[in-house]
Amino acid sequence: TYLNEKSLQMPAKCENLQDDVESLSNKIDGFSEDDYLQIITNIQSCPWKRQAEEHEKFRAQLASCCDAVENFIVSKNNTPVGTNLSYEVESRKKIHIGESIFNMFPVSQPFMDYPYNQCAVVGNGGILNKSLCGAEIDKSDFVFRCNLPPTTGNISKDVGSKTNLVTVNPSIISIKYANLKDKKAVFLKDIAAYGDAFLLLPAFSFRANTGASFKVYYTVKKSKARQKVVFFHPKYLRQLALFWRTKGVAAFRLSSGLMITSVAVELCENVKLYGFWPFSKTVEDTPVSHHYYDNQLPKQGFHEMPKEYNQILQLHVKGILKLQFSKCEIA
Ligand SMILES: *[C@@H]1O[C@H](CO)[C@@H](O)[C@H](O)[C@H]1NC(C)=O
Ligand SMILES: *[C@@H]1O[C@H](CO)[C@@H](O)[C@H](O)[C@H]1NC(C)=O
Ligand SMILES: *[C@@H]1O[C@H](CO)[C@@H](O)[C@H](O)[C@H]1NC(C)=O
């Protein structure tokens, strides 16, 4: 019935979007890509308006559970020397924060210009190919990216080149950079593209992450590279996972995309998401690769992508953040 109503541009259709998105998340027969694409078609045909009150309300919820402003990154302030820090996922395991680890931490939260006005969270979806969103992304005050994606060469006109913070999944260090043994120079050359950005690692999520994360820290430090290595606070991530669990996202672990989106909603007045597209095709039915740089499929069962995406769609229809679904308008 939506398809018939679409041409009429009925305002009621736009008013019901919130209910429509929520009802998709409650569907018992699971996730259907076509249901999502139809709702997204409707969402795109309705005007988007920032709702400052909704944003404040949601930000207050996040601040009371998680408080990214103080707790998102491990700092000397929030983690005194001598702390026995519990891991995020293997929470019965602890790491003792002695002087040498403590000295890797920044004194306090390093986000000097908080709150930021306009932030871009750039996901890695193939939907960014030929999007021409690069210029718009680069105009943002703060640009978040995930897992060391390429930003140089021809792709920069689609994904931009500005980066203020980029997450690093420890598995990329072992797989792509051979644990920084043989491929240290390649790594240093690749991260040079991010200027003086923060490299953010989940050093204290799994015990197996710690060594690789510290290795990144020392590699960057010894080479006097401009990037600054920081670590996700495991307690922040645990509380964030509990928060999203109350909304129905019960994955083994949140994706870095949702972690960073949650941080951005707390740190920024305006948040725009690019390259978030967990579907195999566009609304016009053309195939989309999983990433803009390869077509590797996600690990099954690790994240709960449909549930996560549903929450992000809800934030979009509530006017808390804006998802860019299609090509960017060139001014
Ligand atoms: C951390 O653990 C060590 C060894 O189990 C213990 O001696 C120390 O008191 C603990 N520190 C704190 C702050 O609980
Ligand atoms: C960029 O695009 C041009 C023309 O489309 C092509 O000749 C060139 O090889 C590309 N460069 C890179 C780095 O992919
Ligand atoms: C996006 O670009 C990558 C790398 O050139 C390519 O492998 C992929 O197929 C492209 N995807 C789309 C949807 O054009």
Automatic annotation (TrEMBL):
Pfam families: Glyco_transf_29
Matching Gene3D superfamilies: Glycosyl transferase family 29 (3.90.1480.20)
A GO term from the CC aspect: Golgi membrane
One BP term from GO: oligosaccharide metabolic process
TM region positions: none
Keywords: Disulfide bond, Glycoprotein, Glycosyltransferase, Golgi apparatus, Membrane, Signal-anchor, Transferase, Transmembrane, Transmembrane helix
Disulfide-bond pairs as recorded: 119-268
Family matches, as CDD domains: GT29_ST8SIA6
Chief site of localization: Golgi
Superkingdom of the organism of origin: Eukaryota
Subcellular location: Golgi apparatus membrane
Family: Belongs to the glycosyltransferase 29 family.
Name of the protein described by the UniProt record: Alpha-2,8-sialyltransferase 8F
Native source organism of the sequence: Chrysochloris asiatica
Gene: ST8SIA6
